[in-house]
Write a structure and sequence with these properties.
Layout (H helix, E strand, L loop, with lengths): L2 H14 L2 H7 L4 H15 L4 E3 L4 E3 L1 H25 L7 E7 L1 H18 L3 E7 L13 E5 L8 E8 L1 E5 L1 H6 L14 E4 L7 E4 L12 E4 L2 E5 L2 H9 L4 E5 L4 H5 L4 E3 L8 E7 L1 H4 L2 H18 L4
Parallel strand pairs: 3-4, 3-5, 8-11, 8-12
Antiparallel strand pairs: 1-2, 5-14, 6-14, 7-12, 7-13, 9-10
Helix pairs in contact: 1-2, 1-3, 1-4, 2-3, 5-10
Length: 306
């Protein structure tokens, strides 16, 4: 059995989370996948995966070997692209990750448009509300919201999003709308745990107090706490109270007047949005093509000029 083909199948199985899906990705039968894994395990003298009828997980040896397989396969792809020179066109599988709601609203439509232009490309889009390890998890490109730690990754800023407080016009008509963050203590609040993980909400210094740079902390009493922006916004739309979300999450509802933004003078500094990737990945035509397409598209979508 060809060792490179077996390595590619091993990587596909891990990425897809099953032997059957990994085989389908590369056009191989489950039997062929099993033979490939057996071939590699026999050469290494150790199991790579622990398989049950419902799941699989990497062994310690498998985790180490996975990184080696990814590096070898990437080097081969780079060599082929280098030989092809300027004639190289985007082709192959791209793995992209983004925050769940941002990915659904902003990234997925652009990925669809990219696929329309490049028939030889396939994209695996992972929408996850966690920071994915780009190198260890075989990610070609990631979209991240928030300040980035120093790292070896290349980061291109594509925009900013704000943390906002909003409510339905119906709710605001029933109460005295808040003029400053402290007013929230007397109002019904809907907490979205990814933005407001505790009962203390943070705000900027306010336009009337330019001297203060630190965030203003306000304790609220949430009537409802949810772990989904969709759920928080749905309750706000039904007039149940005020919620704190990121601006893009409520963008459509603010635009058509179903929600109203409050405390705008007290909003903290916006959070940056970046597209990140490794320099190694950028050397491939598929990643370079997606970066060249996605970065300007997201900048236009978010109204950002570099």
């Amino acid at each position: 059995m060809d060792r490179l083909d077996a390595m590619a199948l091993f990587v596909a199985v891990v990425d897809e989370g099953s032997l059957a899906r990994g085989g389908r990705r590369l056009g191989k039968s489950p039997a062929a996948v099993s033979r490939a894994l057996g071939f590699l395990e026999a050469r290494l003298g150790a199991p790579l995966l622990v398989r049950t009828t419902r799941s699989l997980r990497l062994t310690e040896r498998g985790e180490a070997y996975l990184g080696t397989c990814r590096a070898v396969l990437e080097q081969i792809e780079e060599a082929e692209l280098g030989a092809a020179g300027d004639r190289a066109a985007p082709r192959g599988l791209l793995t992209v990750t983004a925050p769940r709601m941002f990915g659904r609203l902003k990234v997925r439509p652009q990925v669809d448009a990219f696929l329309d232009r490049h028939a030889a490309v396939q994209v695996r889009l992972l929408l996850l509300d966690r920071v994915v390890n780009v190198i260890d998890e075989g990610i070609d490109l990631a979209v991240r919201i928030g300040h980035l730690p120093d790292s070896s990754l290349v980061a291109l800023k594509v925009g900013e999003v704000s943390r906002i407080v909003c409510a339905s016009p119906a709710y605001l008509a029933r109460v005295r709308p808040p003029r400053e963050p402290a007013d929230l203590a007397a109002l019904a609040c809907i907490a979205f745990t990814q933005i407001t993980p505790s009962e203390v909400w943070s705000f900027g210094p306010g336009s009337a107090d330019g001297r203060a740079e630190r965030l203003r902390q306000v304790r609220v009493q949430p009537r409802l706490t949810v772990n989904s922006a969709d759920a928080a916004l749905a309750s706000a739309l039904e007039g149940k109270g005020l919620t704190c979300v990121l601006s893009y999450q409520a963008e459509a509802m603010l635009a058509d007047g179903r929600l109203q933004r409050v405390l705008t003078d007290w909003e903290p500094a916006p959070l940056p949005v970046h597209v990140v990737f490794t320099r190694t990945r950028l050397a491939t035509a598929k990643t370079r093509g997606l970066v060249d397409f996605l970065v300007p598209a997201l900048r236009a979508e978010l109204g950002y000029r570099a």
